[in-house]
Write a structure and sequence with these properties.
Layout: H1 12-33, E1 34-35, E2 38-39, H2 43-59, E3 64-65, E4 77-79, E5 82-90, E6 98-100, H3 105-114, E7 120-126, E8 131-137, H4 139-149, H5 151-154, E9 155-156, E10 167-169, H6 171-178, E11 184-189, H7 201-208
Parallel strand pairs: 5-7
Antiparallel strand pairs: 1-2, 3-4, 4-5, 6-10, 7-8, 8-11, 9-10
Length: 209
């Protein structure tokens, strides 16, 4: 199987573009998703679209499938027919990455009992004012760490009585995965720029047409 995602990390021009433009685009995503100074959950969908747009830019629209059935909860996009999960986290650590979104405790337990890594991951670590990164985690590495740690140490269930909205990969598991040989990494300095950006302007312009 040809590993297409690795090509991103071999393209210096694209690497430079990612380092420069991803913080800018993600800052816009936060502005678009904010209300009264708080960033809403919809920011995740906007970030995901921005990353899918990167794949389309690099590999061509005909090779990127975006209309993924909702039943395939872990898959966000397909590249040359291969499934990819896109995940973003904020902060310097590797905690809080969701494997599946659910508030039902029983469904969460069932998910853990039946889960097995099944697709490549693109992980973006956002760390405003400091350093984070853009990671490509191949499926083989996830399977290796999953096999070494076991299901219960790899998967973190939500605490009873709380509403965390999902089942997570443990901090320990993800830390091992990103440090594994074979995980690709682009270091990104997450600096915000002073933006004069109006999230309503483009919609107002549509109404004016």
């Amino acid at each position: 199987m040809i590993n297409h995602l690795v090509k991103i990390f071999e393209d210096q021009e694209l690497i430079d573009k990612i380092k420069k433009r991803l913080p800018y685009l993600f800052q816009i995503a936060e502005i678009e998703s904010s209300r009264a100074g708080k960033v809403g959950m919809e920011v995740g969908s906007l970030r995901e679209r921005m990353l899918v747009a990167l794949l389309i830019h690099r590999f061509g629209e005909e090779n990127v499938k975006t209309d993924i059935p909702i039943t395939k909860a872990e898959i966000d996009v397909e590249l040359f027919g291969e499934p990819i999960s896109i995940k973003t986290i904020t902060g310097k650590g590797f905690s809080g990455v969701k494997l599946v979104w659910t508030v039902d405790a029983q469904k969460a337990k069932e998910f853990r009992e039946n889960y097995y890594p099944n697709c490549d991951i693109l992980l973006i670590q956002i760390n405003w004012g400091s350093v984070g990164g853009f990671y490509y985690i191949p499926l083989e590495i996830q399977k290796k760490i999953f096999g070494e740690m076991g299901r219960k140490k790899y998967i973190k269930l939500p605490k009873p009585g709380t509403n965390p909205r999902g089942v997570e990969i443990t901090k320990e598991a993800l830390s091992k995965i990103v440090d594994s040989e074979g995980t690709n990494f682009i270091k990104i300095t997450w600096q915000k720029t002073k933006l004069d950006y109006d999230p309503y302007k483009k919609w107002v312009d549509y109404w004016k047409e």
